[in-house]
Amino acid sequence: MNNEIKSLNKLLKTEYQHGFVTSIDSDTLPVGLNEQTIREISKRKNEPPFMLEWRLKAYAHWLTLEEPHWSTVQHPPIDYQTISYYSAPKNKSDGPKSLEDVDPELLKTYEKLGIPLKEQALLAGVAVDAVFDSVSVATTFKGKLKEVGIIFCSFSEAVQEHPELVKAYLGSVVPYTDNFFAALNAAVFSDGSFCYIPKGVRCPMELSTYFRINAVSTGQFERTLIIADEGSYVSYLEGCTAPMRDENQLHAAVVELIALEKATIKYSTVQNWYPGDEDGKGGIYNFVTKRGHCRGARSKISWTQVETGSAITWKYPSVILEGDDSVGEFYSIALTNHHQQADTGTKMIHIGKNTKSTIIAKGIAAGFAQNAYRGLVRVGKQAENARNYTQCDSLLMGSQCGAHTFPYIEVKNPTAKVEHEATTSKLSEDQLFYLQQRGIESDDAVSMVVNGFCKAVMKQLPMEFAVEAQKLLGLRLEGSIG
Amino acid sequence: MLDIHNLHVTVEGKPILNGISLSIKPGEIHAIMGPNGSGKSTLSNVLTGRSGYEVVEGQVTYEGVDLLDQSPEARAQQGIFLAFQYPVEIPGVNNIYLLKAAYNARRKAQGLKEIDAYEFLEWVKARLQWLHMDEQFLYRDVNAGFSGGEKKRNEILQMLVLEPQLAILDETDSGLDIDALKVVAEGVNRLRDSHRSFIVITHYQRLLDYIIPDYVHVLSEGRIIKSGGSELAHELEKTGYGWITNTEVTS
Q1: CB contact (8 A) between residue A451 and residue B76
Q2: Pairing of strands A327-336, B90-94
Q3: Cβ of A439 and B73 within 8 Å?
Q4: Residues in chain A whose Cβ is within 8 Å of chain B
C-alpha cells in the first residue's frame, strides 16, 4: 500500500511542456468591464453596427445573470473587473496581410509549439488559423481553399468580408442568452475562426485552429463558427496551450456548428491549457460552450475531445438533432491530475425522427483531481425511433481522486431506445505488475494501460492528432506510479 | 543460476515463507508442490518483485547478483519470466503490441536495436503454431474475454516469444483440460535446454507427467519439508497432502 502511494506520487509529477512566455509588444485594454470596454473592442475591430448592438444586448443580459455553480467544480469567486478583455500583438499595419507580415516572434512561438505556419513546412493537408491572445495572427492555405469556395478565416475578417453569413448564423446555436459564460463571450469576444463550406464540397484538408494565451491578466474569449452547407463535409481540429502563470486565467469560448442537409462536421479538440502546478496554483479556468445544430435531414455532427489541461474544465459539447435521420456523436477523454477539476460531458437533444446519438466518455483521475461526466439525453415528443447509446467509464489512479457520473435522461417518445452503461475502475496494481513483469518500464506500463482504456475514443481522432494525444496522455501521467 | 538462502517473507506482518533455501542450476527443472496456502505463489511473487511482500530475512541471488533490490522490470529484462496463475486483462492493448513492447524492452536492456516488425511477426507466428493458436489471437486485447484455457496458453505464448533464462510457471495447469495441458507442456519442453531453468509450481502431479522435473520440493507452511526426484510427485499423488500436517518436520 505504502509502495503504491509513493510510486503514485512519483508518477504524477510532470512538467508542463508549453509554459514559456513570448515577449512581444501588445496592444492591451486596461482591466475592467463596462459598456465602454465593449464599444472599444468593437471600435478596434471596425465592426459594423449590427455587431456592436448584439454585443451590447449580450452585455445587458449578462449583467442580469449569476455565475453558475451547479457543477462539481469549485473555485474562488472570479472578479470580472480585474481581467483585461482585449490583448493583441502590435503590428505595423492594421493586421497581417500575409505570413511575411507576421511578427517573427509569433512564428517562432507557434514553431515551438510544433505548429509551423509557413505553408511549405506544414504537414500536408492541414490548414491552420492561429489565434494569439485575442486575435487571429495567421491563417494558412486560404487561397487553396478559396478555389473550391471554402471560406476559412479569422472571425474578424468574416465580419468584414462576409457580414451576411455572420449575421445569419451568429448566435443561432448558442444565443447570448444561453448561459453566463456564453453571454460574457458574446459581449467581449475578440476573435476566433470562421469557416463556411459551400454546397456539395468536401473540404480537401483538415482545418485547424491553434489557440494560445500569452499576455498576463487577460481573458481569452474566442468564438468559432462553422457552417457546413448541404452535402458538404469538413473535419476541424482545435488545439490550445498557455504559459505557466501563478494566477488563474479565464478562457470562455463559444463554438457554434451548423450542419445543413446531408452535411457532416467532425470537430476534434486536444485541450492542453496550462493546468496549474502540483499544488493547484495557477492554471486556466476553461468555461466553454460548444454546440452543434444538425439542422438538415441526414446531417451529422461528431465531437471528439481530449481534455488534459486547465485547472478547471467546464464544457458540454452538444448536438441538437433537429433534421430527420441526423446523427450526433460525442467521444471524450478527460484526464485530470494533481488538483485539476473537470466537469464535462454532452447534451444530445433529439427532435427529428430516426435521430441517433452515441456518447463514449472516458474519464481518468489521478492525484487529488476530481473528474465528472455530466450528460443529458433528451428525446422530444416528435422524435420517433430516436436512439442513444451512452458508455462512460472512469479510471482512478490512487485513492485521493474522485470520479462522478451524472447521466440525465428525459424521454417523451415511447419508441425511443436509450442505453446507458457506466463503469468505474481503479488502475490496478495487477495490470502494472503484469506489464512490468514483461520487462516494460513503469511509466510506459501506465501509459499503455491508460491508452488502452482510451482506445475507443483515440481511434476517432485524425491520425496526426491521435499521435499527439497519446503522447500527451503519457506525459501528463509520467511518474505517477512506479 | 538462482540461489535462495533462508528466505523469510511476511505479508502485512504475517509470516508466509519461513526459511526457504533452494539452489537452481542452469538446465534444471524444479517442481514445487504443496497444499493451498503453503506459500507457493508468494515465492513466485517475491522472486519477480511484486509489491506487498516484505523480506525479513535471507537472500536471493540471480546469476550471482542480489535479486531482491531490483525492480520487477529489471528482473524481467534479465530473463526472469512468470507465467501468471491469474493472467491479467488489459483492455484496449492488443496481444501483438504487448509482445513486441516486451520483446524490445529486453533487447533495449541488452543494448540491441528494436526488432524488425516483419521478422518479429514471423517469430511469433511460428510459436503460435506450436501452441495450435490462431493468428487472430494476436489482434485481440490482452486476455480480455479469453477463456481460462486461452489465458494460460497466452502466457506460454509470451514465454516462447520472450525465451527467458528462468521461467516460473505458477499453477499453469489449473483450469486446463488434458489436451490443453499437453500443448502447454510441449511448449515448455521445446524451450528446455542446458542453459535454461524452470520452476514449475503446481498443486497436482499430472502436469509433471508431461514436464518431467529434475527435482520435486514439497512446500508446507512456508518451508520445504521434503525434496526428491520426479518419483516424489507420484508418491504425493497417491498419498495426497494429508500426511504433511501429521508428519514431524525434519530439516
Answers
A1: no
A2: unpaired
A3: yes
A4: 1, 3-4, 428-431, 433-442, 444, 448-449, 451-456
Start-to-end CA span in chain B (Å): 24
Domain-located, residue A334: yes
Chain A interface, best mutation among B70, B73, B78, by max A CB count within 10 A: B73
A248 in Cβ contact with A280 (< 8 Å): no
Query: Which of A285-323 are b and which e, b meaning 16 or more Cβ less than 10 Å from the residue's Cβ?
Result: bbbbbbbbbbbbbbbbbbbbbbbbbbbbbbbbbbbbbbb
Name the percent of chain B in helix, strand, coil, to the closest 5. 40, 30, 35
Query: Residues A461, A466, A470, CA angle at the centre, nearest 5°?
Result: 135
pTM more than 0.95 = no
Distance CA A57, CA A41 (A): 15
User: Does residue A452 form part of some domain?
Assistant: no
DSSP 8-class letter at B38: S
Pairing state between β A283-294 and A135-139 = unpaired
- The reply to whether residue B92 touches residue A456, judged by beta carbons under 8 angstroms, is yes
Smallest CA-to-CA distance from B101 within A437, A12, A472 is with: A437
* Residue A137, number of CB atoms within 10 A of its CB: 27
Could you read off the pLDDT tens digit of each residue along chain A, which spans 482 residues?
334 434 434 444 456 666 666 666 677 788 889 999 999 999 988 999 999 999 999 999 999 999 998 888 888 888 999 888 887 766 544 444 555 556 666 666 666 655 555 554 444 455 667 776 656 666 777 788 899 999 998 899 999 999 999 999 999 999 999 999 999 999 999 888 899 999 999 998 888 887 776 666 677 888 999 999 999 999 988 876 666 666 678 889 999 999 999 999 999 988 887 888 888 788 888 999 999 999 999 999 999 998 888 888 999 999 999 999 999 999 999 988 888 888 999 999 999 999 999 999 999 998 888 999 999 999 999 999 999 999 999 999 888 899 999 999 999 999 999 999 999 888 888 999 999 999 999 888 988 998 899 988 888 877 767 777 777 777 777 656 53
For chain B, helix (H) and strand (E) counts, in that order, are: 8, 12
Q: The C-alpha cell of B97 is what?
A: 503490441
CB of B236 within 8 A of CB of B205? yes
Distance (Å, whole) CA B155 – CA B173: 11
The verdict on B158 touching A (C-beta cutoff 8 Å) is: yes
Would you call B124 helix, strand, or coil by DSSP?
Answer: helix
Q: Is residue A373 part of a domain?
A: yes
In a domain, A9, yes or no: no
Check: CATH 3.40.50.300 for B2-246?
A: yes
Q: How many domains does chain A have?
A: 1
- CA Rg, chain A, in Å? 22
* Chain A residues within 8 A of B102 when measuring between CB atoms: 438-440
Residue A206 exposed, middle or buried by CB count within 10 Å (0-12, 13-18, 19+): buried
Helical spans, DSSP H, in chain B: 40-48, 72-77, 95-109, 117-130, 148-162, 178-191, 231-239, 242-246
Q: Determine which of B45, B93, B156 to mutate to test the interface with A (most A C-beta atoms within 10 Å).
A: B93
Q: List the domain range (segments joined by +) for residue A129.
A: 23-434
Q: How far is CA A332 from the centre of its chain?
A: 11
Backbone angles phi, psi at A142, to 5 degrees: -60, -45
